[in-house]
Amino acid sequence: MEAPRARAGRPELSIVVPVHDEADNLPILVERLKTVLAGAVSSWELVCVDDGSRDGTLSVLKLLSASDPRISAVSFSRNFGKEIAIAAGLDHASGDAVVIMDADLQHPPETILVFLEKWRGGFLNIYGQRASRAGESALKRNLARAFYKLFASFGETELPEGAGDFRLLDRKVVDALRALPERARFSKGLYAWVGFPSIGVTFEVAERQHGETKFRFGKLFSFAFDGLSSFSTVPLKIATWAGVVIAVISTLSAAFFLLRTVFFGTDLPGFPSLIVSIMFFSGIQLISLGMIGEYVGRIFAEVKRRPLYLIGERVGFDARTVDHPRGDALPPLIR
Ligand code: UDP
Ligand code: MG
């Protein structure tokens, strides 16, 4: 057992919420959580990670924290992205169990009660699975489905379909996740990778309360590629396979042309096929190079060993009592 922390001891449940421009949603979320959690757990805390918001989210968090000591927040020096905000939240949460949820009330707080029931029943890694993707466009739905299919056939890790970031993790799972050193954090994959007794709980995704989604298509695509490349080396192998197949085809056609020239003489017209084949091979080479580049880029990002995030400010934390290695491997000035 670790020694209990000075700040109000160690709560039974921590709620970690990545927050980017959600000033209007936060007060509603806090009220809903208070109602749901009253009597459900012996003690709880809310850890919000302000991911470079520009709409006054931080002042809302300060007010909320001043009015309720169970609410605390860390504020990044800029927008680092939701995945990293979650990592920071896990670093700052001290509960025996940690729930991760969005700030926009799309993840119904009532589902936490079901999570708790499963947790008390012995499950350590409990993930919310959306019942449907009704609120999303058909294009987004189909792309999501394609991604899961691709991941299932490529990835070396099994990803439950429809499982997102809304989940409850036992302290053991949180500590396992925090021990993973990688920078490119595709957390959906990481949750699955760490394992532990896991179970899904279906929930209906609610409408976003205020504001709009921050995930546009471009971001979702790069997110999907991050996921595939972090958990699979198949894209690298595709380049190799394509190279082999094309080498065989070109050897065969070279032999064919050689024989044809020997037996039937030469015919000059051949420029179109020449140009086409040059372009084709340049294309293949560029694709292969690009593929390798993507992985080299990731290796580069890992070896730089930059801190995962920089904290601008902490609200409601006694700095000496928090144990958070990643954001703090920094000279005091930046902190
Ligand atoms: N979020 C974040 N950093 C970002 C983008 C989003 O912390 O760069 C938070 C956001 O405040 C919300 C959650 O991540 O709490 C989910 O974001 P959003 O609702 O925009 O995504 P969607 O529900 O459309 O997937
Ligand atoms: Mg949302």
What does this structure look like?
- The protein is α/β, with parallel strands linked by helices.
- It folds into two domains: 13-217 and 307-315, Spore Coat Polysaccharide Biosynthesis Protein SpsA, Chain A, CATH 3.90.550.10; 233-304.
- Helix content is 47%, strand content 15%.
- The protein is built from ten helices and eight strands.
- It has helices at residues 25-37, 57-67, 82-92, 111-120, 138-154, 171-178, 187-194, 217-231, 234-264, 271-304; strands at 13-19, 44-50, 71-76, 97-100, 125-130, 163-170, 198-203, 311-315.
- The protein has an eight-stranded mixed sheet, with helices on both faces.
- Strand 2, helix 2 (57-67) and strand 3 form a beta-alpha-beta unit.
- Helix 5 (138-154) runs parallel beside helix 8 and helix 9 runs antiparallel to helix 10 (271-304).
- It starts with 12 loop residues before the first strand and ends in a 20-residue tail after the last strand.
- The model is unreliable at 1-7 and 328-335 (pLDDT under 50).
- It binds uridine-5'-diphosphate and magnesium ion.
